[in-house]
Amino acid sequence: MYLSPEEALTLRRGESGTLLYPILRDKLISLNPGIVTVDNVDPIINRIESVRNNIEGNAEVLSWRRGRKGVWCGCVGTNKPPSNGASLLIEVLLRPPANF
């Protein structure tokens, strides 16, 4: 999907935004049925946003990708493997596909 710079800026909620919030929110919910819901998706997004922009943050995201660690926000444990094909967005942020 192509987004114009203006559309991306709007979806990121301005210059300082790093995520395409509405898309991330919808994909987290649709690709993780029964795990991520409308009621608990915002704390997950907050956790994703809080990853440090340094080598430690890179290591944390890599551990999510490799399945060593799931996103936990106090309301959702993602220790259950996903039951879907997972897009790259979900692979990086929550759990890896089975063949990783």
Which tags fit this structure?
mainly alpha; 5 helices; 100 residues; 44% helix
Over all CA atoms, what is the radius of gyration?
Answer: 14 Å
SSE succession: HHHHH
Chain-averaged pLDDT: 75
Helicity range = 40-55%
Which segments are poorly predicted (pLDDT under 50) over 5 or more consecutive residues? Answer: 74-94
Give a short summary of the structure.
The protein is mostly helical. It has helices at about 5-10, 20-30, 40-50, 55-65, 90-95. The model is unreliable at about 75-95 (pLDDT under 50).
Describe this structure in words.
- The chain has 100 residues and is mainly alpha-helical.
- Helix content is 44%, strand content 0%.
- The longest helix has 11 residues, at 21-31.
- The relative contact order is 0.15.
- The model is unreliable at 74-94 (pLDDT under 50).
SSE layout:
Blueprint: H1 5-11, H2 21-31, H3 41-49, H4 55-65, H5 88-93
